[in-house]
Amino acid sequence: MRSRTVLTAVAATALTAVLAACGGGSGGSGGSGDSELAAVKSAGTLKVGTEGTYSPFSFHDPSSNALTGYDVDVAKAVADKLGVKVEYVETPFDAIFAGLSAKRFDVVVNQVTKNPQREGLYGLSTTYTYSEGVVATRADDSSITSLAGLSGKKSAQSLTSNWAQVAKDAGAQVESVEGFTQAVTLLKQKRVDATVNDNLVILDYQKSTGDTSVKIAASTGDVSQQVIATRKGSDLVGAVDTALADLKKDGTLKSISEKYFKEDVSVAPSGAGTPATSATS
Length: 281
What we know:
Blueprint: H1 6-21, H2 36-43, E1 45-50, E2 59-60, E3 67-68, H3 70-82, E4 85-90, H4 96-101, E5 107-113, H5 116-121, E6 122-124, E7 129-138, E8 154-157, H6 162-169, E9 173-176, H7 180-188, E10 195-198, H8 199-209, E11 214-231, H9 236-249, H10 252-261
Parallel strand pairs: 1-4, 1-5, 8-9
Antiparallel strand pairs: 2-3, 5-11, 6-11, 7-10, 7-11
Helix pairs in contact: 3-9, 3-10
InterPro entries: SBP_3_CS, Solute-binding_3/MltF_N
Domain Solute-binding protein family 3/N-terminal: 45-264
Family: Belongs to the bacterial solute-binding protein 3 family.
């Protein structure tokens, strides 16, 4: 899934300050120093920030245009455990943490990868998804066979994602995009050489589109852990942790996982003890 750098965090913080100064953020529950859990319970609604363009996690069904996906189902299940309704607030990933800080929504459920930087800035839940990072290239391109092969290449990434940092650390020139769909488009148009993302995203893309012009060329070597993000100091994170524990215990997370991936990605694979630290999604 995705993770995203210090420069990004600074930019997000600056944007948050601007939004706050402008009175930005009409939604969200609670406030600094308040019980955000109590505010959510009182409102009867958990407002969830999510992209809505990141298949299979958060996207619109092509036939019905309804918002659906793995993270959409997980967010609803968490809200159910909290005893409240769920409301999704669709936001580009590069603005999603600024939106959280500006209280446009209560939590972010969008494959947020756990890393030390985010642990310092936000309240992060326990892990509900494990994934592996991969490098995708055009199928007819054999010039990249490892993460190190990205050195000197162009990689299309959302700037605030973990994967952008992974690509930069590997020596790639990062081309900014709004999301995975645009990244694949640039890749197929030969405007970039690669894109780094979660293996489940690439496999879902290949399965859902039948596109054989894009392949997984290499693994990043990271098993990353995805979490639900709250504001730093929010008491919501404890309630979310309890909800996720209940959902794991009663088999709900396993069921949602197998619905989308045919396997349980809520369970740690071998070697998943250390989260990816080089970046953030």
